[in-house]
Write a sequence for this structure.
């Protein structure tokens, strides 16, 4: 029974990490910059969930509302802050980092520094392979699988996915073929921001909501993307392996050390194999 719980913890943790990281991976793949405002968008999603449930709407409404709110704010950020800095990637990274600080301060002014909680759409546990396990974490895993399949289908079976992959592989060649890379960058940033806010809303039933909730998740997502390159499959593998290591160390060792596991192992992996889980 304990082994079943451990395996389920590993799978659900991998699903959580995947949903948190996928938006960052999409932006990095096309724009070749790390969006350090990713954690801020995740926090926005958490507070959108807080507002939705606080207004006595169904908790299931919070994730889609957070997705739309994140996408809308992402569109404004891309046009006003990120787009003028496409040719200065270091400045773009610093700008998104600065934006994350501004967002944290604005949320603190509006909601205070206190920890708040969001109502879970489901509660309790179900019996799985002889063990009782959190129903919401299993639903989260299912959402991660569906989201991964949906994004993979989007990238491989739609025109947007085709042009996005063309820009990822060779932006100059894509532009010479008439592809509007600025529009592709805009769309991918909007999608990435929306997915980050979606992740924040989905996380709130498992965690508390506070102005800095996105910071820890940003660090883990950053390291997972670094070892995954631009591949969804590599990201899935990284989430299972590194997330699984985190669960094992937290369960049988020290939870504080477990919290550092992804960062430390990812750094070691990049030192030994610069391509990480991605194919060379």
């Amino acid at each position: 029974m304990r082994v079943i719980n451990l395996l389920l913890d590993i799978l659900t943790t991998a699903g959580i990490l995947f949903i948190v990281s996928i938006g960052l991976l999409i932006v990095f793949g096309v724009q070749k910059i790390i969006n350090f405002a990713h954690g801020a968008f995740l926090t926005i999603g958490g507070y959108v969930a807080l507002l939705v449930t606080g207004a006595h709407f169904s908790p299931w409404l919070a994730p889609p509302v957070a997705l739309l709110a994140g996408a809308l704010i992402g569109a404004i950020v891309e046009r006003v802050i990120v787009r003028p800095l496409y040719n200065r990637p270091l400045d773009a990274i610093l700008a998104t980092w600065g934006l994350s600080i501004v967002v944290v301060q604005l949320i603190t002014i509006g909601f205070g520094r206190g920890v708040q909680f969001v109502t879970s759409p489901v509660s309790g546990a179900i019996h799985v392979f002889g063990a009782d396990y959190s129903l919401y974490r299993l639903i989260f895993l299912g959402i991660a699988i569906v989201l991964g399949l949906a994004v993979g289908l989007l990238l491989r079976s739609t025109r947007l996915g085709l042009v996005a992959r063309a820009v990822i592989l060779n932006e100059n060649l894509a532009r010479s073929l008439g592809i509007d890379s600025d529009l592709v960058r805009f769309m991918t940033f909007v999608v990435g921001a929306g997915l980050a806010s979606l992740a924040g809303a989905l996380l709130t039933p498992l965690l508390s909501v506070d102005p800095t909730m996105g910071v820890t998740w940003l660090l883990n997502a950053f390291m997972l993307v670094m070892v995954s390159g631009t591949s969804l499959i590599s990201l899935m593998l990284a989430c299972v392996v590194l997330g699984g290591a985190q669960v094992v160390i937290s369960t049988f060792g020290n939870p504080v050390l477990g919290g550092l596991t992804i960062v430390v192992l990812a750094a070691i992996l990049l030192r030994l194999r610069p391509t990480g889980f991605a194919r060379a």
Remarks:
- The mean pLDDT is 88.
- DSSP finds eleven helices and two strands in the chain.
- Strands lie at 125-128, 131-134.
- Residues 4 and 172 are 50 Å apart (CA to CA).
